[in-house]
Structure formats: structure tokens, C-alpha cells
Amino acid sequence: MRGNDIAQLRVFLAVLDHGGFRRAAPHLGMTPSAVSQSIRTLEERLGQRLLNRTTRSIAPTEAGQQLRNRITPALAEIAAAEDELLAISDRVTGRVRITAPRVGAEHVLAPRLASFHAAYPGVKVEIVVSETLDDAVAGGFDAGLRLGDSLGLGMRAVPVGGPARMVVVAAPAYLAQRGLPETPEALCQHSCLNFPRPSTGVPWLWEFEQNGQCLQVFVDGPLISTDACVLLRAAIEGAGIAFLFEQDAASSIASGRLQALLTDWTPRFPGFHLYYAGTRLVTPALRAFIDHLTKRRTP
């Protein structure tokens, strides 16, 4: 098989993965007309119509689906072999676009960027911080960072940040005035500082767990904010009780500006995962980024 034949097969898969010639073209670095010509040449070479085309959609014919099923794992193996050689030869180049919430970008991705750039100076990383649970693929991203490992159809996820934990915190001055909540339910009698749900704007229910018992508590208070830094500062100033990621509150707890509460009710849970489309060929740049994030850090 000639190299151009393999290139045509890759174009064929890209058209199906992205849903059309025009959508596939930017990912292939080709014009839509060049993509169309490549598919036409492939169909002529194989003597089969591979795609059913309409003005609104493209779908594989029976022969096209058969070809897709056979070549997808083969081309994935070729790509994996190329990735290994590129990594060994230190010639990985390209761009990786990631969508991530602020806490994940700050505490999971940012600490690894300097070492990643040192290992792969030819790769540019673009991180778009967003608290909404956007579809990474639909948004044109190579991967997304999310809590947990629940996946959409055709997606893969790898753990990259270790277990996470939320902590209930308040300033000593607030607690001296209002008292300590002894149970999660007691939070209903306190001024609480909360996040809104990204999709609806409705405040989050605070979730707790102890010895297999799970509770969801509705809290109320003077402040709702999408920014953890705002909630943190308000808690330090005595405005109320906040429920924050441990990484965000750790230094304030250590300094005594905040006190951790209900620690027996806030166990660790599965942390951040990097997820990406399992149906696409993973680029060398994305593969290098995934491998770097999942590699155990040395002290």
C-alpha cells in the first residue's frame, strides 16, 4: 500500500468522525474540495461507493461501514507506532486545546506545564477555563478536564489529579459569634456562601457522606458566586460558611484564618479525569500531554 493510499483512508475516517467534508477539512489541514477529491479517488480505487451524501449529512454505505470497521484499529496502531517514534526522537509538535474548570486548571494542569514544555518544547498548550460542562469535542477541543470518570458515548477518560476533597470552612470570628455546626443538617441555621449550578444558576446542594450514609443539604446565605476566590475571601472576612475544594482553602486553614468543620463528613472522592474522543486518532501532541499528566511525579 502506498503512502497516499493510507492518507486517503485517514481522510475517509475524518469525514465520518466530523460529519462532513467541510468540518473535517480544518482538522486535516486541507480544503473541502481537496477532501472531496480524496474521497472520490478512494472510491474509484476500491470500485465502491463509500459514502451516502445529502445536503445535510453524510453516512457510510454498507461497504463504507465495513471499511471503517476494518481500518479504524489498523490506523490507530499506525498512529500509536508513529507517536512512539516521535516521542523517542523528541520531535513532537503541534497544539493541544483543553477545556477545564478553574480549580482543575490551577491545581492539576498548571503545575505540570513547565515540565511538559521542557520535555516537549514544540507543543503549545491552550487551556480555556470554563465552569460549564461543555462538550469538549463539539467545542473544538482535543480534551476536557472534569471531575469523575462518567463518560459520554465514544469517550475515554484517564485519571490525572488523584483523589479530591471538599472542605467546610469558616473564620474563627464567625464561629465565635454563631457557634459550631455539629452536623450537616445544622448548616441550615447558618449563613452559607455557595456556588450556583453552571447550567441553571440554582445554588448547589451540599453533599456529605459518613459510614455509607449520604446527605444532601440545602443551605442559604448572603452570597452566591461562580468564583471560589470570592467565596474564600468572604469566608475569611467572617461573612459565613463556605464549601470549597481543599486545595483552595488549605493555606488559609494552615494559617488559622479559617477552621475546617465537619471533617468526618467530607471524605475524598475520585478527582479530575482528562477525557477525549476514543473514536478519533489521538495526535502525537495530545498523546504526549496525556502521558505526561499520568506519569507519577517525583518529589
From TrEMBL:
What are the HTH lysR-type domain coordinates in residue numbering?
4-61
- Highest rank taxon of the organism: Bacteria
What GO molecular functions are on record for this protein? DNA-binding transcription factor activity; sequence-specific DNA binding
Cite a single GO BP annotation.
DNA-templated transcription
**Stored InterPro entries:** LysR-type_TF_proteobact-type, LysR_HTH_N, LysR_subst-bd, WH-like_DNA-bd_sf, WH_DNA-bd_sf
The UniProt keyword set, sorted, is: DNA-binding, Plasmid, Transcription, Transcription regulation
Family named by the database record: Belongs to the LysR transcriptional regulatory family.
List the PANTHER family hit by this protein, alphabetically. Answer: HTH-TYPE TRANSCRIPTIONAL REGULATOR, HTH-TYPE TRANSCRIPTIONAL REGULATOR PGRR
Instruction: Specify the protein name.
Output: LysR family transcriptional regulator
